[in-house]
Design a protein that fits this description.
By secondary structure, the protein is mostly beta strands. The chain has a single domain, classed as Kelch-type beta propeller (Neuraminidase, 6 Propeller). Helices cover about 0% and strands about 45% of the residues. The strands form 9 sheets. The protein has a 4-stranded antiparallel beta sheet, with no helix packed on it. Strands 6-7-9-10 form a 4-stranded antiparallel beta sheet, with no helix packed on it. A 4-stranded antiparallel beta sheet has the order 11-12-15-16, with no helix packed on it.
Length: about 270
């Protein structure tokens, strides 16, 4: 999911009687209502999404028909309510994370045909081109990725199984094309949501061998420390988060490990 024009867009996932969906729905916090938008061009899950200059970009994911990782790049125009294909990512993968810094979309990590990847690739929507950047030191999937103070933070994730979760926290500086280690997430987990609210990096939910997580932990770059915040009322994984105004929205997700679904929708304010 991603914020676009003050609305929260939720893309694809698992749904329907056969587990496949091309659903694209948008939530308007101003009216507390949902609306259906142009369906995805193909049924996908575990995609990455972010908005740049009034358009919504969707990258990677798994093809729900066969489970294959894809390299797709699609752009959604809200004015026309249409999708268009753009140049594919160099590395096909799903369960990746994305963040926008300086008008570029960074696609980080994920799982490809041969396992976890540390791929870090930057997309420029002005030229419709992808460029390989310094790879993430710790290859992993189902991680949380967000932009904070001009840098890309990659937190948590797993090594092909939620029985092998990680709390690793690595930070990429686009200006120097280098990664640095940062204080790890206190509660290792995967399938998390990550977003920046009030200048802090929040990591919510997730799954692991003990079940689903309700934890909401925030990293403050000013102090270099993590602290706990109000937990999710409903533990869930396979989620995303989007910020509109002073609120962080976490709709849907899975209440139990693996394939599960809930329409639960929560807003968090600091």
């Amino acid at each position: 999911m991603a914020e676009l024009g003050g609305k929260v867009h939720v893309l694809g996932g698992f749904g329907g009687l056969d587990g496949r969906t091309r659903a694209h729905e948008a939530y308007d916090p101003a009216s507390d209502t949902w609306s259906s938008r142009a369906q995805l061009p193909r049924p996908l899950n575990h995609v990455g999404a972010a908005s740049i200059d009034g358009k919504l970009y969707m990258v990677g994911g798994f093809d729900t028909n066969n489970g294959d990782a894809v390299a797709d790049t699609w752009v959604y125009d809200p004015a026309a309510d249409t999708w268009q294909r753009r140049a594919p990512m160099p590395t096909a993968r799903g369960a990746l994370g994305v963040a926008v810094v300086g008008g570029l979309l960074y696609a980080v990590g994920g799982a490809g045909p041969d396992g976890d990847v540390g791929a870090n690739e930057a997309y420029d929507p002005r030229t419709d081109t992808w460029t390989a950047r310094a790879p993430m030191p710790t290859a992993r999937d189902h991680l949380g990725v967000a932009a904070l103070d001009g840098k890309v933070h990659a937190v948590a994730g797993r090594f092909r199984s939620f029985a092998r979760n990680s709390g690793v926290h690595e930070v990429y500086d686009p200006a120097t094309d280098r990664w640095a280690a940062a204080p790890p997430l206190p509660t290792p987990r995967s399938g998390v949501a990550a977003a920046v609210l009030g200048g802090k990096l929040l990591v919510l939910g997730g799954e692991g061998s003990r079940g689903t997580f309700a934890e909401n932990e925030g990293y403050d770059p000013a102090t270099g420390a993590w602290e706990g915040y109000a937990s999710l009322p409903v533990p869930k994984h396979g989620i995303g988060a989007a910020v509109v105004g002073d609120a962080l929205y976490v709709p849907s997700g899975g209440p139990t490990p693996g394939g599960s679904q809930t329409p639960d929708h929560r807003a968090f304010r600091l």
